Amino acid sequence: MSKLLSKKPVNADSEKESSTPLHRRTFLRYTAGAGVAAGTLALTGCDDILEEIFNNPNVPPSLIEVNVGSGDFGVLNFAYALEQLEAAFYTKVVASAYYTGASAAERQIFSDLEAHERIHRDFLKTAIKANGGTPIRDLDPDFTTVDFTSRTSVLATAKAFEDLGVAAYNGAGKLISNPVYLGLAGKIVSVEARHASLIRDLIANGTFVGPDVVDQTTGLEMSKTPAQVVAIANNYLKKGSKLNVSNLPTE
Amino acid sequence: MNILNIISEIEKIDPEVYDRLDQRRTMFKHFAGFGKKLAVAAVPFAMGAMFNKAYGQTSGLSQQIKDVLNFALRLEYLDSTFYNEGVNRPGLLTGQDRADLITITNDEFNHIKFLRNVLGADAIAPLTANNFDYTGSKGGTRAPLFPDVFTNRATFLAVAQGLEDTGVRAYKGGAPLLISNNTILEAALNIHSVEARHVAHFRTMRRGGPQALPGSPQTAPKSWISGNDAGGPSPAITLPIYGSGNPATAYPSEANTVQAGVELVGPFATAAQASEAFDEPLDMASVLAIASNFIK
């Protein structure tokens, strides 16, 4: 351990593979750089160490983010990250006080949405692995801004996630090289659009499309780049799980 | 992307292509079944030149892209003309129903403008109400499939759902053919998701609104496609909208639960859920066969 601690602070650029889990060794090497005393390490629990690392302003972001990677697997991991977030959200919804008191139709809808997003998540993880890629690690969502007892809060968050998902897949499609993966993204995005349509109608019937999502001159849905997507998605992810998409293709 | 069609095209010129490449034939049979562990995903790499993005980035649009966009344009005319007729039939749809149909019609008109703009002089001649017969009688040459389509709300919305679900499958089938042109591909995806929003709303309307519980897929469908929706609103006619295309391995029915070799049904996912989670593409010929019911 003293050997590890005596190492130089880690260079951020050497940590491009931060899509892999933060290993204990990395934490320790890093902590040394951040100037945390070895004694503190010995006495503090892992979560406290993490907290201390994340709160240290000298910590380079590459160490506390999850980099989705590059190329087609990067794009698939980007999708996998969003599906993790959606699935985690709906898992909380169907266990929430809101859900217990919701209308029969809303319970049915959220039950379906929970299943669909869980299937998307599990499928993408399996598909990335089966093709020789490395799935990003499990993300820690942060839903502290969501009030799971409130219908308004739950529906507004569902709308945000579904609209974001559609804009994300639409924006990422052109970044995919392999037409099979592109086809898979197409099979998922229209289901996300169906979700978005119904959630928006639940909030206000007739708002299944709107000027916030569809350009009123061209009739085209407005895509978001991965950078624009994670700027929003990261609000729902804890430190240590914030997404970095800087290695994704841009065209 | 349809590998088997490419091989069958080669076969037209060289009937013995399979025999010449017997080992490959076996390989392609595996791909046809989507094999195990995403074997199909390897195909585009093996046939890289055919699919390489670099090939498509030329000035002007390739013939393939023009064909796909003109095909999409045809479908947009088919849909928008139908909705526009519906908007203008007094009493067919009223209140919120009619307002929603106007919203959808405007989106479709915008799609037409956009596609015509992209295609320029290569766009097909505009189509009008004279080109279509939404009763399905093909201009009175056969018994109508939907005789009350413009007088009965339920029939109108059932046909609208069928047309729009077909459109979603058509764009999905077309998207991989546009991979060589990022701008066009993104635009097509941006239309595709709008069509999916539309059809989800038609389905919600048919069910009785967002607070109505789903029931029979014929009369009260979910906002997404569950299984093959038992053949859709009018199974004797609409089954192909939810069925498999050609070849079925590349264009399975909406009831499909195997994605890229991964079986999604398991301890935590039913067949209904697994099918709902993924929409399926449809090939141009199958789409045209459906659309031709309404083309004179």
UniProtKB/TrEMBL annotation, chain A:
Listed InterPro entries: Ferritin-like, Ferritin-like_SF
Pfam families reported in the protein's UniProt record: Ferritin_2
Protein name per UniProt: Ferritin-like domain-containing protein
TrEMBL record, chain B:
SUPFAM superfamilies: Ferritin-like
Lineage: Bacteria, Pseudomonadati, Bacteroidota, Cytophagia, Cytophagales
Pfam families hit by this protein: Ferritin_2 (PF13668)
InterPro entries, A to Z: Ferritin-like_SF (IPR009078)
Official protein name in the record: Ferritin-like domain-containing protein
